[in-house]
Every structure is written in structure tokens, then in C-alpha cells.
Amino acid sequence: MQAFEVSAPHAFAIGDRPAPNAAPGEVIVDVAFAGICGSDMHIIHGDNAFVQFPRITGHEFAGVIRAVGDGVDPARVGERVCIDPVVNCGRCYPCRIGRPNVCSAMQVIGVHRNGGFAEQVNVPAANAHRLPDGLDLDAAALVEPYSIAANVLSRMDPRPGDRLLVIGAGVIGLTVLQMARALGLEQVIVTDILDERLATARELGASHTINGRSEDLEQAVLAATEGEGIPLIADAACVPAMLPTILRMACPAARIGLLGFSPTPSDLVQLEVIKKELTLVGSRLNNRKFPEVIEHIATGRLDPKALISHRVPLTEMPGAIDLLENHPEQARKVLVKISP
Ligand code: MN
What we know:
Blueprint: E1 2-8, E2 11-16, E3 26-36, H1 38-44, E4 55-56, E5 61-68, E6 80-83, E7 86-87, H2 93-96, E8 107-108, E9 120-124, E10 128-130, H3 137-140, H4 143-156, E11 164-167, H5 171-182, E12 188-192, H6 195-203, E13 208-211, H7 217-224, E14 230-235, H8 243-249, E15 250-258, H9 270-275, E16 279-282, H10 290-298, E17 308-313, H11 317-326, E18 333-337
Helix pairs in contact: 4-5, 4-10
The protein binds manganese (II) ion (MN).
């Protein structure tokens, strides 16, 4: 089968690889569409400490079940599915308290085990979520990025009427915006440094946008909130040096969701955290959010097609990677179309 494999940092190729077999409890999926994510770039650059090479990457994908292993209902062959990449052990402390997305022995599909940039992939049957009729496979490849948004918002405990500030209007920031609107938050401020991305955010329902390069973000946020500050802040830009600004923009009792994966330290002013009794939460991958996201897409409350800017065949993946790295303003989600 054809697959995109990273053999070492900065070394990747599309070539022929053995097709996987289904172990007991697994299914084989014919991949239809797989999305390219910023974290795939980190793997390619050797910036992901968890990955072992060689690796077929890709953790955002959907397709059709072609075969099942022992113990899986054979009636699932032919089922249209999207794949939750979180494979957890079920025994460690986070698993025991219902936090499988921070399992101590987590295996992320496309990171620790082979993923979706391939004609076929083997995954645990429980990770393959059935799609409702009418939910297209290209849209279904975006369930995973929306699950990131669903997870961070659930960690932030939004209340009706809360204002939300989304920092960063790349794909993840836009999924947070759409998910927040789907959950009924009406005042969503989005900031970025690219006007193209802010225009997209306005099309997708942002109530206010701020270009953090041409405006003073902190002043603009205070002006937009009558000086009150913001109760919900989701950081999808993930610039460690921004944390002090984020803390200052937060109103008392605010909840701040952090999505960055940088090892660079941030300055954290304790006084700011304590005097306003701020809650800072990390959010990693997703904690069983696929059913909720699939439901929101099926009922039209999320619009995944608005986030897809390109569809390319597997053979053109290197060009797509180049586009995402060098012209991020020209791309939103790039999908790799794999099986016909
Ligand atoms: Mn991703």
C-alpha cells in the first residue's frame, strides 16, 4: 500500500509499505481523507518527544472499515467511520478517574503507532466511530480537530453569557470559535496577527476581531469589555511569552485554557493568578468528545467544510507541507485524499 512515512527528523517519503493486519479487537480502515496538522510538522522537524521512527503519521482521518480482527462484529465491514486517535491503557490513575487522554501509557494513533496518511491503517475497533448517513468523509476528517476545541472548552467550564477570547485564528482557533458558538456563547473575540485569518473568523461568527500586530491587544480587549476583562480565554496561538498578557486580560474568576506544546518556560505572575483567583487548565487531545462533535456536525451546528482549503492526493503531500510551512495565510485545513 502507499503511505507517507517519516523515517527520521526531516526525512520523509511516500512509498510502498506492507498493508497492516488486524489484531484481535482491531479493524482495518481504508482511509478516505486525512488532515495535515501543525503537530505533523513538529514530528517531521523532530520536535515531538513522543514519536518513534519510522512512523506513518496522520491522526485526523476518516474512511471505511474493510476488515475486522477476532472479537469484532463482522457486520462492521463497510461501516463509514472517523478515528479517535487516543488509545489508552485503562489501568493507570488518569484512566481510572476518567481522564484517558492523559493516560500514563497513551498510544496516539499517528504518533506512537501508525496513522492515517496511508491507504490502510489498523486501529482499535472502539476508536472507530460510526458516521451518521449524510455526514461526508471529508467533513469527518475534521472531527478530531473539533474534539480539541470541545475538550478545551469543557475544561474551561463556560457559563451562559460568558465572553470568550480565542488567541490564534489558525484551524484550532477557528474550531474553538465554531464550537463555542455551537455551545451558545455569543460574544467570541478572536485575535491573530494575520488579517486573512481574522476575516475568516468574522465569517464564522466572531463578534469582534483584533489584529495583535497593528493593535495593542490588551488595550483592545479592555476596551471591548468595558474594562472588565475576559472570563474565558483559549490560547490556540501557544506563544509562551504571551502568558503574562493573557493573565492581565483575564477578569477575576476567569478560566484560561492552554493548548501549547512548547517546552519554553513562560513568566507567570503569582499575584495575578491569586488575586483574581484564576483557573489555568491544560488541555490535551480529547476525552471521549467524538460522539458530541459528530452530533454537532450532523445537525449543522458546526461547519467543517468552511475550514477545508485544499484537497490533495497523497503524492502531492510534500507540496502541501511546503504550503503550510511557508504560506500559512493561504491555507486552512489541507486534506489528503487517499482512497477513491
Ligand atoms: Mn491535529
